[in-house]
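Form 7-S
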Amino acid sequence: MPEEIRLRLLTRAINRFGHEGPAELGKVEALLAQLNRALATRVAKGATRSAGIRLKQTLAGALVSLTQRRLRVEPAPPRRGR
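Output:
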């Protein structure tokens, strides 16, 4: 899939599940680059199904995690109270 389409889909998913306003384009681009590196590392190493979570990050109130073969975007857990 072309890079621009992947970027738009990731931005829409983050904006849908996030609760801290729209995601900034530069931050989504950086996250997509991290996802690309994690996937490339997995392919290069020939990771097995037991590899577990390779990436987990929050952005704009959304939790983005890359697991075995799935990219999940869900609302981030609430922050700790002081």
